Amino acid sequence: MATIDNSFDAGLHTEQLGGRTQEIFFSAEEEENFVYPYNAFEVDSSKKTEFDAQNLESSDINLKIRELMKEGFGHIVVKNPSAKHSIAVGILNRLQLDFDGSLGYFGCGLVDGPNIKISGRVGWSFAENMMAGTIIVEKNAGSTFGAAIRGGDLVCKGDVGSRTGIDMKGGTIIVGGRTGTLSGFMMQRGRMIVLGDAGSNLGDSMYDGTIYVGGKIASLGVDAVAGEMTDLEAEWIERKLALYGMKAPNGAENLQKIVAGKQLWNYDNLEPTEKKIVL
Amino acid sequence: MCGIAGIIRRGSPGNIGGEMTSMLQSLKHRGPDSTGFAVYGVPEKNQFVMRFKVAEQEDLNSGFDIHQQITDRRETVDSRMKEMGAEIISQDTVTEYAFRYTFSKEGSLHRMADYIEDVEGAEIISLGSALELIKDLGDAGVVSGQYNLGKFNGTHAIGHTRMATESDVDIRSAHPYWAYPFNDVSVVHNGQLTSYWNWRRTLEHRGHRFMSNCDSELIAVYLADKMNNGVELETAMKDSLDELDGVFTYVVATSDRLGMAKDLMAAKPMVLYESDDFVALASEEVAIRSIFPHEIDTFDPYEGEVRVWQL
């Protein structure tokens, strides 16, 4: 019987995957497969426009953004989004998108590539499953900020609610202020930088990834442990923060580093029968 | 899911009924089953306001006799109030089964309240000098229109849009709840209390009455029990975070205060806005935006947080 040694043999790399961040899994000759079958537009970054969303429903705002991208506008300014929900979800191309005001729940989910700025605050479940690009929130954010993100930089310059970066699988989350309970819960990859305090159960059940905290940590979650900061990391953090005009109050080298202790059951290599003997 | 909201005017009284209607209407998607308001007017000296019902909305379809029964029950309430020494000043028929009375009375209202609720189908929705509690089936626009709340003048209010999960769709399971027998105390809640039956049995043994099977009523009764034992409101709210089990955010109002509490898991949302003249809070910012359309700074309270604001 033929054995399958790697994912190439399994045929995984000939599938037409949709995410830009999956690019690293493709070989050069498969480049033609790296396309978005739907919803992507060729836009010109020098072409700018704006519209007022005050009297528009969420679906109308999304349709308007889509229409403008279709017309080739690469820089769109949305005025008065008025904390409406589910805006700017599923944008899969390069775009400079500026919101003059606040967004409600479920904003900017599933984006893959755009650079987004929000001058106000954002509600719960912001940027869920973000794949690539940058998002900068100037004020505060609600809970489950950046849940399950896979790539890109997600920045909130103010405070965020609980469960920040829950289940994150890549990318970087930066919080200028404080974050709430259970941040980094079941985190799998990526980096989270919190310049203020962190709530209870930080990094609970995290599989991997790294959390850096500048302020007080109320308590660590199960299997979250302190790690040792390296010069390389500190330099990387300083460079990353500088990109967004931010700075660690006491220097990046003094941030507390939290990683997975990897002592939970899912990290052992024992078979169930062996485990019975051990236990 | 449910939506909750609160607003307090720190300056002068204003159209609190219209403002709460706008806030709750923008939370309609969080629960369209029923809507409730607890609005606090400007108290008249030596005068109480009582809102009560003598039937459920659904009872109106239960037979030809119900209309006469409603009339009879109301007459019984009137006679019992007089018997207990209350002087009725005004009587408004808000719907066929719901009424608003103003009256004066010396001494405790507790016995009179028990005597009224002994009438078949009767439930006091609220009782106090400032509090008026209105709840019915339908969205905020419908209920506000039905009870003429759009121009209610007052100092503060809390409200609720209900997505029924733990109990039936009827008025008795709708929020807000009055913290019987405390004048002017009301509660709205978003979440689930998993220790409901344990706490209900405990509180019933202490003599408290429950009018519904809705877990949210427990918070009102729990706070009433604490205050009955001399515990200050803010301390009682802090105690609730340790003693009540579940995921919840709730808002409580008294004649001159508005407070909120969020459980230790912070699983239910709340957004706050504070200025010199106003405090507004809601499950979603879109509700606050409905009355403050200009750019404002808002924030989320954290896990285990209790806040109380004074008029």
Describe this entry's structure for a reader:
The complex is a heterodimer of chains A (279) and B (311). Chain A has 279 residues and is α/β, with parallel strands linked by helices. Chain A folds into 2 domains: 1-35, no CATH class; 45-261, 3 Solenoid (Pectate Lyase C-like), CATH 2.160.20.60. In chain A, 12% of the residues lie in helices and 23% in strands. Chain A contains 3 helices and 11 strands. Chain A has an 11-stranded mixed β-sheet, with helices on one face. Chain B has 311 residues and is of the alpha+beta class. Chain B has 2 domains: 3-37 and 140-310, 4-Layer Sandwich (Glutamine Phosphoribosylpyrophosphate, subunit 1, domain 1), CATH 3.60.20; 44-129, ACT domain (Alpha-Beta Plaits, 2-Layer Sandwich). Chain B contains 8 helices and 15 strands. In chain B, helix 5 (196-205) runs parallel beside helix 6 and helix 6 (215-228) crosses helix 7 (233-243). Chain B is globular. Chain B starts with a strand and ends with a strand. The mean pLDDT of chain B is 91. The A-B interface holds A 54, 82-85, 101-102, 104-105, 120-121, 123-124, 139-140, 142-143, 158-163, 178, 180-182, 199-200 and B 264-267, 269, 271, 284-286, 288-289, 293, 295, 297-300, 302-303.
